[in-house]
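Table 4 source record.
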Amino acid sequence: MTAHIADLADTPTEVVRHVLEVNLLGTILCSRRAAQVMSTRRGGAGEAIVNVSSSGATLGSPHEYVHYAAAEAGVDALTTGLAKELASEGIRVNAVAPGLVRTGIHAGAGRPERVETAVARVPAGRAGEPEEIAPAIAWLLGEQATYTSGAVLRVAGGL
């Protein structure tokens, strides 16, 4: 969630806090619980965690939602560090970083038209669809990605 689209200076503190709690702290707490349950050292079977980040994490999203971009950069850092921390416990940790995707995230921030206005920035010339993001997540969870850990897979139409 972005919750607000504007310059950071015009974004209320409570909105910044809420976006950080949902996007970063929420991911940290879910990953923490997954590590507790999945760790072979703790009696689990191992497996994989796939976080969902955003291409905004490296683009910064100026004049729109730098607070959201900062939270998603935190998710990328969490993914990298946790992959190293959990490797010996049978858990792979990766992330998918979508770009502009046709979802309700922009409407939730009060700008439902943002997909159409931002599409000109996407090298592919169009917004992505959720169905184009899901296979990347499925691949990272699957048997073909058993040697992949610590990766942030960008699925962003060239952004």
